[in-house]
Task: inverse folding
């Protein structure tokens, strides 16, 4: 399993109970090599988000296996899941920044989840990562004073500041215009390459496809197509 | 503040930043907490003043044992006791001396208003039964129709009171007699009367012709040095053949009187409830502020959860908010509460004041109840499911 950040095998998932129980995922298997940039596509309702939340330790695995950083998620206790979440970076469709915190403080929150990091170090790291995403002149701005693209870049910085092994992004470009979207994706790709971070990005956005190493297509809870670009 | 919280929690003061982000709401919340504090301060102040006013007359006397009628719950009510019990009590070897104490309220026409003075009739030849501050005035009471007036009585002008001296006494009419005040002492208004007056037992009986020397309201006893009051009380209870008599040490009587006022009389119960209501209002205000704050930030909290923050972190943020509200709301509450009490004290002459004990207990209560409502408010966080964010 060396070189594989996360692997899912025979993943099945159901929502609802008894008569209303509906299967959302059917025998999903995938493996993301370390440092790869993978795009997960599919129409809405195909189960993309379910896959992402299962991989991101936000939902418990019902059937099948998910191995994240060498640890099995199926049946893992909550404390294990919380510890694993700290090694991931999440980017949401909406930036989900805390409106009361400045750009730097939002990024610091991504770092302070790890105990024992002092304020000055966290702040310096946040400023550095904000510089990397091109926001060195917006460090102390509140989200309300930033544009949509800038906010999403802060969210990228927050996801990356803790040097995660895996970045999970859920349609991060949905709310952005063409240029901002391209900027954010390039940023993710570049930073992923530079740091050896594995990235899984869920999208509808066809503009992103040519930047991916691999494209997975999900339909009705099944992976129907795997396309390798590299 | 931000720096302090940062040190205290060892992380970004998220709660502080979150609270102060919306200034208007922050100040409204602080005003709410301050208001609840003022409410509790005023109720506590009134309750404390009632206690202080209740025990105040006990401070005018120096005695070891008090003998009263069975229905005498305070120094100023109850039936009479026969003076024969005084003679019988004096038969006890450890009882040194005794005095009958006569009590009644007299109206005093002050022109625009009548004020009511609780008047104690005492034996002017036994000044040792008076408090050390009052004992020197006993000589004036030996004069026919002589009186010593309460200079802090409600409706009694301070300048008028200050002018009273043996050289310039004040004569006034009450109960169809002319009394002459030769001196004054510091009493103060209570809930039952506007102030106090001291006269001799003879003057008292002339003011109230229906009263008899043989039936005082209370009997005060002083013991020989070294005698133990509780032991003498036990002995007297056995010796005095009327089982209905209330024979208590002076301190015990004072404590029982206080307890009676606080728990059995409507005023005490009402002010006790006032404190409770103040606390509940405060709890509701802080809970409202904190729970709506939690509800407004569910999305952010869910994000933090997804990032790997534990439930303890969220509890910490809400506690931080509770601490900020409790501390910053307390200060204006203390200032306003103290001001209102001082003003009320001035108008009513009741012993209304802010004591350090009150301030400390209200502060601790505020922070504790803020933390409690914070803990209740975080229960909503269970609803912040990070999986719903995607």
Result:
């Amino acid at each position: 399993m060396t070189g594989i950040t996360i692997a899912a095998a025979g993943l099945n998932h159901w929502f609802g109970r008894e008569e209303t129980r509906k299967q959302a995922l059917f025998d999903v298997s995938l493996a993301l090599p370390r440092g790869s940039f993978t795009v997960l596509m599919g129409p809405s309702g195909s189960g993309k988000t379910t896959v992402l939340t299962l991989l991101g330790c936000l939902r418990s695995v019902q059937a099948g296996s998910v191995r994240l950083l060498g640890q099995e998620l199926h049946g893992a206790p909550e404390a294990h899941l919380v510890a694993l979440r700290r090694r991931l970076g999440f980017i949401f469709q909406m930036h989900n920044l805390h409106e009361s915190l400045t750009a730097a403080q939002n990024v610091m929150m991504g770092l302070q989840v790890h105990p024992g990091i002092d304020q000055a170090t966290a702040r310096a790291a946040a400023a550095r990562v904000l510089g990397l995403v091109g926001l060195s002149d917006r460090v102390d701005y509140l989200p309300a004073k930033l544009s949509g693209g800038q906010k999403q870049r802060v969210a990228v910085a927050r996801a990356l500041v803790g040097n995660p092994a895996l970045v999970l992004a859920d349609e991060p470009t949905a709310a952005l215009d063409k240029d901002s979207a391209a900027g954010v994706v390039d940023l993710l790709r570049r930073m992923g390459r530079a740091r050896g971070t594995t990235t899984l990005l869920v999208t509808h956005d066809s503009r992103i496809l040519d930047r991916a190493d691999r494209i997975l297509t999900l339909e009705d809870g099944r992976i129907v197509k795997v396309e390798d670009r590299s | 503040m931000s720096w302090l919280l940062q040190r205290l929690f060892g992380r970004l003061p998220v709660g502080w930043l979150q609270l102060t982000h919306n200034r208007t709401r922050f100040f409204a919340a602080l005003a709410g907490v301050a208001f609840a504090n003022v409410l509790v301060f005023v109720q506590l102040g009134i309750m404390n003043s009632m206690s202080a006013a209740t025990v105040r007359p006990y401070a005018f006397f120096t005695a070891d044992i008090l003998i009263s009628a069975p229905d005498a719950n305070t120094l100023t009510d109850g039936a009479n006791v026969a003076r024969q019990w005084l003679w019988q009590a004096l038969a006890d070897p450890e009882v040194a001396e005794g005095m009958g104490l006569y009590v009644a309220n007299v109206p005093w026409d002050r022109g625009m208003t009548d004020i009511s003075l609780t008047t104690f009739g005492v034996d002017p030849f036994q000044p040792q039964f008076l408090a050390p501050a009052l004992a020197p005035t006993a000589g004036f009471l030996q004069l026919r129709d002589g009186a010593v007036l309460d200079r802090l009585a409600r409706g009694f002008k301070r300048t008028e009171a200050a002018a009273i001296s043996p050289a310039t006494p004040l004569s006034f009419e009450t109960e169809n007699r002319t009394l002459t005040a030769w001196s004054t002492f510091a009493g103060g208004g209570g809930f039952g009367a506007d102030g106090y007056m001291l006269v001799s037992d003879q003057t008292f009986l002339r003011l109230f012709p229906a009263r008899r020397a043989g039936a005082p309201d209370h009997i005060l006893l002083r013991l020989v040095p070294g005698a133990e009051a509780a032991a003498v009380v036990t002995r007297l209870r056995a010796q005095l053949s009327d089982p209905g008599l209330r024979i208590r040490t002076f301190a015990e009587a004072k404590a029982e009187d206080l307890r009676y006022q606080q728990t059995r009389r409507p005023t005490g119960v009402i002010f006790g409830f006032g404190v409770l209501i103040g606390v509940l209002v405060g709890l509701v205000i802080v809970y409202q502020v904190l729970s709506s704050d939690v509800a407004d930030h569910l999305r952010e909290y869910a994000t933090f959860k997804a990032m790997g923050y534990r439930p303890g972190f969220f509890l910490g943020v809400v506690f931080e908010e509770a601490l900020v509200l409790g501390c910053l709301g307390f200060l204006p509450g203390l200032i306003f509460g103290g001001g209102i009490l001082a003003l009320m004290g001035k108008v009513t002459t009741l012993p209304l004041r802010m004591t350090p004990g009150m301030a400390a207990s209200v502060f601790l209560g505020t922070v504790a109840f803020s933390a409690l409502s914070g803990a209740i408010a975080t229960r909503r966080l269970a609803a912040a499911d990070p999986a719903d964010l995607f």
Strands of chain B lie at 65-68, 95-109, 114-122, 146-150, 170-174, 177-185, 195-200, 218-223, 246-249.
